[in-house]
Amino acid sequence: MILYLHGFDATSPGNHEKVLQLQFIDDDVRFLSYSTLHPKHDMRHLLKEVDKQLKLSDDPDPIIVGVGLGAYWAERIAFLCQIRSVMFNPNLWPQENMEGKIDRPEEYVDIANKCVAEFRSKNQGRSLCVLARQDEVLDTARVAEVLAPYYPIVWDDEQTHKFKSISSHLSAIKAFKDRVSVA
Question: Are 29 and 23 a contacting pair, CB within 8 Å?
Answer without folding.
Answer: yes
